[in-house]
From TrEMBL:
Organism, scientific name: Thermoleptolyngbya oregonensis NK1-22
Stated name of the protein: Uncharacterized protein
Amino acid sequence: MGTTHRDVATGAGVRVGDTHEAVTNAYGSPSLADGEMLIYYVSGSDQSESFSFSLDGGRVVEIRYYALLN
């Protein structure tokens, strides 16, 4: 699931429009970083759950949550 709307926030309060710095202040160093994509694996999830933040010009343009369904 994902959003590009500013009115939706993560549990840590990060929203579309926030800066790269706001993401890392809220979540720390990403599990993976690829260009303008920051990926955070959910603790204890064996990488089957993650949040990703797509950036453009250093600002969040999309937030996605991924979960592997068995």
